Amino acid sequence: MPQSEEDASVHETVTINDPVTTLKNDSEGDQPQNGGPDTTDHPQNALEGGESRSTSDEESQSDSDTEDEPPTVKYSRISKLPQSFFQRDSISCCKFSESRFLFGTHSGLLHLTHSDFSPIKTLKCHRSSIMSIYCNTEYFATASMDGTVIIGAFDDFNNLTAFDFKRPVHAVVLDDDYKTNKTFLSGGMAGEIVLSQRNWLGNRMDRVISKGNGIVSGIHKLGTVIFWMNDLGVTFFDINSKSELLNVPFESENQNGIRPDLLKPQVHFPEVDRIIIGWADNVWLFKVSLILPTAKNDITNNLGSIISSATSSLRPLPDKKVELERHFRIPLLLAGIVSFKDDQLLCLGFDYTTDLEMKFKGETPHLKTFDTMTGEEMNDEEVVIKNYEKLSINDYHLGKYIHGTSMPKYFLISATDFIMIEEFSLYDHYKWFLNHNMILKAWDLAQYLDISYEERLELGISYLNAEIEAGSIDDVGTKISKIFGPCKEEVIMNNNSDLHHYVVRQWQGVILKLINERHVNDNLIDNIPIEPRLDKSLYDTILLRYLYESDGKDKFTALLSKWDVSLYSEEIIQGHLETLVRKKDSNCAFYRERLIYTYLQSEKYSKAVPHMLEIKDKNVIHLLINNEQLIPQFTDILINIVLLPFDSPDLNGISDLSKTETKQIFKSSIRLLVVASRHISVSRIITLFEQNEANLDLNLLLLCFLEQLPTNEQTITEQFEDKMVILYSKYDSTKLLRFLKDKTSYNVEKAIDICTAQSGLYNELIYLWGKIGETKKALSIIVDELDDAVLAVDFVKSWGDVELWDFLIGYTMNKPNFVELLLQNYNALGDKYISVVQGVDDDLNINGLHRILSETLNENSLSLRVKKNIFQIVDDETNLYAKELLTIRDQGKVFEGNA
């Protein structure tokens, strides 16, 4: 039964903060040794000696001042492992699983620890070096130079099973279902791949599935695919189909040749379907893909399925395929290979070129990264291990451990040393930037770390002060904005008023420092914050600076547009502008426009209007429309405001405009007048029109205004209807008749006088005379002025006055067109039709007189016949009903008498 040893110590790591670090051997007092000149751009790492301690920051700083970028990894020495790891024995192989770490030694010991390196058990499994360790969730297996394979269960360390193969065994792999079938694969110096399992009697049965191709250097398993390494290279074998999937030969270009059996092949599984193999200077990347099985395929993961019945004539097809994705050679003899960040490989080994003799011993190992796509070397760090001069390539191991979402850890293990390698974390980068005085990079990185905002801000301020002192002010505004910019989100997120005041005070202090030292440029000004707001005095200072600079007017204008008026002291800026305007120099227009802008921004509209009128700014009209409560303040100059849209220097040209042009040009002005009528009486507005300073004829514009007054408020315009009659008669007579019919408050007599004085207003006069009952005067206008017989007849019909028919007949018997129309209106004239016929002069030429009379007679005759027929129908129906009545009356009725 293998023996076990107890080691109660726990592990302790000493982190080397700086990438260039020497760990001294306190017992021997040796000085650090370098493994040779560093030929890359990356820092050299020296690890040497017994117990570890980190060097001072000053030593680290002095060696890395030339570096512009932080290293990719940092190193820690695991210093409190069981003593037997290095003092009583040396490690020959290792295995890292998710929950356990297993270490084999050259004396045959197997150390088991938890993932934090706290000991679980130490077992004496073999008499000589353990060459291979394999484990799953329940079992572990070791293969040794003593020719044995030991298999044990994690839950029962006292029950170990030994298998003796008589020759050194280099590799072992357990079946997934080892608990049931006790099957495993092994191989080694005998050059055979041996499948061992229990037969039906419970005895071990070995079956050789491959032989005769040299020493087996390694055996590995991924699902149903097993692969091994020997003189043929790498061979992949499918468990289910019992067939070879792929063979990749070992390659070497060294003039002395490389014996593959002298170098351990390094295997890593970065994903569930990918395999990385490094062997000597070869790197292969394989992908294992699934082939969908057919109904006849017998799919299993058991190694025992490799042995099939001799009587079986059917062999299932492979359900997996292996593809070589990439292969490249690297200038490194590999002692370990694992996947690294960003599609890279982390490789441990020794520098090797084809024109140099291989060296297996006494060299310092290198830790290099390569791009998996191109094979290009990305980084190179030389690592000095304890007693490296006594170690050969097979004494080194490289492992990778990932637990949950934590950062991967890498373990560099030699026969005498144990070093943990970790990617440089964000915090490591942060500290590195600080140590190398790269303050801005450290500040930028701090946002992703658990660093308070105040601490980060102080860091940024120190950077800004250093930049200012160094005179780097070209883009200082951008830098200030970058440093202080995140404060808004931070303050809002935490609702921290104290932080807000602190940020504002610091932000303002940096800017004022630059201003006081006259370090002012556009970049600084463009990046002065709007939110959070600084003190108004700061914005005032900058605005006034540009206002009084001879070449600062464009910048002053830009800042006024960019900054809200509440940012600066509006009274101060406006006061300066007012003073400059009163000087009336060549820049007066500029000052006035900026003054207007600030007044409008601060909603001091009453102060803006006079200045807007000075420069004839038409926008003042819309300003007053939108702020109508201001209109009464500008009643006396209202007409001047109304006339602003007329661009001609000669205002007399207004009288030459048509009504359409007037309405188009003065559309906004008319709207202003309508709004003004809510605050100023219409009579006052009319007076302003009639008494304008330029003594202009603005009656057409007045008419357009009066037309736009609300029609639902009759009382507004009824007192001005006489005025509108005059205006319509002069400027838009086409609308006069409708106005006269719709309105009732005008003086009819005055309207008649106006229409009589204005030629062509006959329809209006006809309506007006008719409105006061002077129908004969109205009819006379129709007959004499319009000569419109149809209108005349319609007019008489509308009045229904018999005397008016007599007047029309007597007044028009000498007019053929009137007589003709009268004769055609037999139904309207009635008895007077005879008078018309009799009054026709024999000499009067009437078109179609015979036809008209014939049609009238025919119509009368037809009407008479129709009436007679109707009378006959009525008479017949009356007789019928009379007879029925008599018949009913002649009929008797039955009455029942009283008993």
Summarize the entry for a quick read:
The protein has 32 helices and 32 strands.
How would you describe what is shown here?
The longest helix has 42 residues, at 849-890. With 899 residues, the chain is α+β, with helices and mostly antiparallel strands. It has 32 helices and 32 strands. Among the domains are: 84-380, YVTN repeat-like/Quinoprotein amine dehydrogenase (Methylamine Dehydrogenase, Chain H, 7 Propeller); 773-847, no CATH class. The strands form seven sheets. A six-stranded mixed β-sheet has the order 3-4-29-28-27-26, with no helix packed on it. Strands 1-9-8-7-6 form a five-stranded antiparallel β-sheet, with no helix packed on it. The chain has a five-stranded antiparallel β-sheet with strand order 2-5-32-31-30, with no helix packed on it.
Give the end-to-end Cα distance, rounded to a whole number of Å: 148 Å
Structural class: alpha+beta
What's the overall geometry?
A: elongated
Portion in strands: 15-25%
Number of separate helices = 32
Please tell me the overall pLDDT: 81
What name is given to the CATH topology of the domain at 84-380?
Methylamine Dehydrogenase, Chain H
CATH class of the domain at 84-380: Mainly Beta
Could you list the spans in which at least 5 consecutive residues all have pLDDT below 50? 1-66, 309-313
DSSP E strands, number: 32
